[in-house]
Amino acid sequence: MPPLPSPEIAHQDLDPRTAVLPWLHALSRGPRGSRDLDPGQARTLMHWLLQGRLSDAQAGAALVALRMKSESSAELEGFTRAVLDVVPPLASTRATVCLSSLNGTRRLPNQVPLLAALLQRRGMPVLVLGAEQQDGRAHTLPLWQGLGLPVACGRDLAGQALERGEAVYLDLEGLSPELRRVLRWREELGVRNSAHAVAKLLAPVRGPSLLLASYTHADYAPRMTHVLSALRQPALISRGCEGEVPAHPERGAQWLRVDAQGCVHAEADEPAPTDEPAAARARAAARDCEQTLAWTRDVLDGREALPSALQGQLRRIEALFAQLPRSAAADEAAPA
Q: Is the C-alpha dihedral spanning 102, 232, 327, 204 positive or negative?
């Protein structure tokens, strides 16, 4: 898909606080009357949200209306392009696995640090974008720090860690304070907003990348593949585990794969055995952070078996990562 006109060009003469009013009207007319924004309007709206150019009332109204209506594929594409317009890629030129960890888990262990560490051991640099929240869930950062994995204080340090081949955690604040500010509207409104969906679609590195993404609600799967197909972003998407990327230890996964040409492929794994001991021990490890840490260390050190679902996911990621150019320079040198 050709790039859309720059919002600064398409809507440069608009006053955001008056121009947004008919868009709010279109978004807010209820289940039968609401209308979607086109990609250019959505892109401009997200620019205004990122720049803080709407009043608090208008920003809150737009985010709640989109939450109630649910973003269309075209709107989600426009929002994602707006964020990519303002987020410079990290400097690493190496092929990288990218994922966002925003949900946390409640009933099962948070396996994001485990997955990242296993990928790094297999020679894949990993960028994990996080946003810690006080919501009673098991989020990634405490586990990441407990394992002694590197946490970057900013974009430059994250890029350097990836260039060294490490698995590194970067808070969204360090990547894009503007996007993090839109995410924080959850604290005021009580519900997630479109920035949460956009953050899951970001692979902000200069080199080739494989994006790992997850969804909680099935209707988001075709929207996510639409955006990643339009961006030609290689990706592996599944329902994951409570909204996080790692495979659920107790069920087979349905996979959506987007290749570098934007084609979408649907695949599936066999269901995990219902009585698999490794899956049962994984569930038991979710009681608190210390037990999750102990279980994760045991798996990494070979004292505990890895759940078969996560083994299958690792094999898929390895195979897809092997198809990427090794660096940005290799990508530029590849024949058209």
A: negative
In this prediction, residue 272 carries a pLDDT of 72
CA 39/CA 211 separation, integer angstroms: 22
pLDDT, tens digit (0-9, with 9 covering 90-100), for 47-67: 999 999 999 999 999 999 999
How big is the CA angle at 144 (ends 202 and 124), to the nearest 5 degrees? 55
Condensed to tens digits (0 to 9), the pLDDT of residues 77-107 reads 999 999 999 999 999 999 999 999 999 999 9
Largest interatomic CA distance in the chain = 63
Identity of the residue numbered 108: L
DSSP label at residue 219 = T
Dihedral over alpha carbons 218, 222, 228, 234 (to 10 degrees): 70
Do residues 281 and 304 lie in contact, with contact meaning Cβ atoms separated by under 8 Å? yes
Domain-ending residue, one of 86, 112, 136: 86
2 part of a folded domain: no
Amino acid at 190: G
- Which CATH number do you get for residue 26? 1.20.970.10
Distance in angstroms (rounded) separating the CA atoms of residues 145 and 142: 5
